């Protein structure tokens, strides 16, 4: 019996979406401390991954709280003297290459192809050399302080914002509240409030507010929601007199467009939803409070 063909793009996208559902978009982290490895994912031999595979393995590492940047196949782990623990699940990555083929005229053409293969993180494997394992990055108190006017603005929106030492920023849909690491662990206040703006844009999507989650309910909508939140972050930062990190936001948005296999029209749809979110936030937050300070 022939095994069913795997939809590589769907499987890759689903892995990334799993990280969103876990509250772990790991490629944006302007604070110190990490539950997972902050570095670029690399192969067993130290060669770095590229393209969509970076996004995939970052996402899986964040969702599973892996600390090691090293990934390898079952055979590679065995060759290194390691053994994958029973019950551990692999991550699917993509291999891109080409082959040559003659067409009907006898002309040789280069044909691109893609295939998937499975890898495990070093944290899933026992018995590897010590250098394959890493400890999480501890949060560092950098002394970054709150801005009183911005604090008043965000408080006025009515969003419930929790702060703990957990080094993750996310919106908890089930509990309808935002989680933030302490501002003192951020490299600067702009990074803190930009991150909060991103999560507050997510917050507007609840059923009691703009009900985006209800209207974009299929699984692929999680990736679309990340586009909305990142554009919302840029718009709200501009409204509040903060400087958005356009370079990072551009890379973030480009990554999600690739993950979704969407064309640029997704940007326009996401921008429309983001504007609705920012209009609501500004109505609730009374931006005049910020200008008056």
UniProtKB/TrEMBL annotation:
Segments forming domain Polyvalent protein metallopeptidase: 149-272
Cross-referenced InterPro entries, in alphabetical order?
Antirestriction_ArdC (IPR017113), ArdC_N (IPR013610), MPTase-PolyVal (IPR041459)
GO molecular function term, any single one: single-stranded DNA binding
List each copy of the N-terminal domain by range.
Answer: 7-120
Protein name per UniProt? Antirestriction protein ArdC
Query: Per the UniProt entry, what species is this protein from, by scientific name?
Result: Sedimentitalea nanhaiensis
């Amino acid at each position: 019996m022939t095994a069913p063909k795997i939809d590589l793009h769907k499987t890759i996208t689903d892995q990334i979406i799993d990280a969103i559902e876990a509250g772990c978009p790991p490629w944006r982290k302007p604070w110190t401390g990490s539950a997972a490895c902050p570095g670029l994912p690399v192969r067993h031999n130290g060669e770095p991954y590229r393209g969509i595979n970076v996004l995939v393995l970052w996402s899986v590492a964040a969702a599973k709280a892996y600390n090691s940047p090293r990934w390898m196949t079952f055979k590679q782990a065995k060759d290194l003297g390691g053994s994958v623990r029973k019950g551990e699940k692999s991550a699917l990555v993509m291999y891109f290459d080409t082959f040559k083929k003659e067409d009907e005229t006898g002309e040789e053409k280069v044909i691109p192809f893609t295939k998937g293969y499975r890898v495990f993180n070093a944290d899933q494997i026992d018995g590897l050399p010590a250098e394959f394992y890493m400890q999480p990055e501890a949060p560092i108190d950098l002394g970054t302080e709150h801005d009183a006017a911005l604090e008043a603005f965000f408080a006025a929106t009515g969003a419930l914002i929790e702060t703990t030492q957990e080094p993750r920023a996310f919106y908890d849909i089930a509990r309808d509240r935002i989680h933030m690491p302490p501002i003192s662990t951020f490299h600067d206040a702009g990074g803190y409030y930009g991150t909060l703006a991103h999560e507050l844009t997510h917050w507007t999507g609840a059923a009691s507010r703009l009900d985006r989650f209800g209207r974009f309910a299929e699984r692929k909508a999680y990736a679309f929601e990340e586009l909305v939140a990142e554009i919302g972050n840029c718009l709200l930062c501009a409204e509040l007199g903060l400087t958005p990190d356009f370079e990072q936001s551009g890379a973030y948005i480009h990554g999600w467009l690739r993950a979704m296999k969407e064309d640029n029209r997704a940007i326009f749809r996401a921008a429309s939803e983001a504007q609705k979110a920012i209009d609501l936030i500004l109505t609730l937050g009374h931006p005049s409070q910020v200008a008056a300070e």
